[in-house]
Amino acid sequence: MKKSFLKKVKLEIILLCIILLFALFLRVYSLGSSPFWVDEAISARASVMILEKGVPILDSGWHYSSAYFLHYLMAFFMLFGQTEFFARFISVIFGLLTIVLAYFIGKEYSKSGGIISALFFTVFYLEVFFSRQARYYQLFQLAFFASLYFLYKSKENPQWLYLAIIAFFVAIDTHLEALILAPFFILHILYYNRRQWFLSILPVIPLIKKLIPASRLSTGSANVVSNYASKYFSYTTNMLYLIILFIPGLILGFFKRKRLTLTLMIPAIATLIGIFSLQTFAFRYAYFFMFLILLYSAVLFSWLYDRYGKLILIPLFLLIIIPSNLFFPYTYVNVIKPIDYNFNDISAPYTDYKAVPTDVITQLKSDITLISYYSADVEFYIRKPDYALPFTMTGIGEDQVSVNNSLGEVVDRYSGASILTGIPERPYNLVADSFSVSKLKPNQMELLANLTEECEVKYENWDLKIYGC
Description:
Structural class: alpha/beta
Number of strands: 8
Strand content: 5-15%
Largest sheet: 6 strands, mixed
Number of helices: 20
């Protein structure tokens, strides 16, 4: 009996290692091939500043006080090279740790739940894509659900509470969305961890400090929540079968581990509703919730496997393979064949400076005045622009890039370049990326037309136009 048990445990560990190796392969394959999307360029710039100054203060004087944990770790890997690969590698690690977390949570529900959960997380396309980004969404998913899992475990073993608190503060540091965890932590500690009641003070600190700023981001409108919910749901059309599997899996999970299921679900649903009430839309904000959809789909299959045995391996195999990029190259749900491109998400645009001919890049790097709109990726791929043009990042207002530096000068927040409001002396090169131009107001479009009048188009593509004037 003992030998049989050890043999099963050994086999499970071997399977988990194989799954993790395949997950690593999918996540590091051509990791540096695709260009940064707009927010990745900001994180990369903040990490470079950490290497240069020790703190993420950009040349404009703007202190990028967001996701310190991520950016300092990113900066460490960028010591080996200031490239896309090393900027993104820390998210690969977070992606692998998310699979390990899913394995342990899945095992709480059944013997086979751990391996099946790990398999689902390994190949699911969003898990792969977000684990390949130099941004904090993979870390947030990991820290959010790790904190809740550790909190759940702390009822039986109070030592887990310290890990839960650490994961909670990492989640709060990573994104303001994690603020919703604070009241759940406070209530859980006071009810289940009474001997450690003093630790309930810790979640109160960010709750008091950040609650008012966070509340200003919400519209508080039921109509807005409904409209944005439907908009987010439109991104799930290719994975409706997972949502269908998620529902009975959630019910089974509830009856098997009621407290664990409620501990995971209630804060996550509350956070998701908060996201739906924001004044801006970005699919990545809701990505964290995919953890639960995958987890409880796996719980359903683990229940079926425990009940019907190896016969279930056939539909499980088909569920992994058929909706994969082996058969559906554009609308796939699972990644079996490695990818070398960005996630196709209109709410996460990018400019492909890697596609610009070398001779054009050389001209832009010359001493001729360089003008740009969004400057973070221009500085990474070309050089710091001499002037930046104002625009709005989200479409709200007219200018979200201009700030006053310590000298009282109006500069671009990302590069520190002077903000241009008129027509400078020629010659100059102007970089007009589609993301920025799409946000321009009529008077700003007029300025662009005046700046590019009688100029030569040196390069043009769907995402970028470069002028020589």
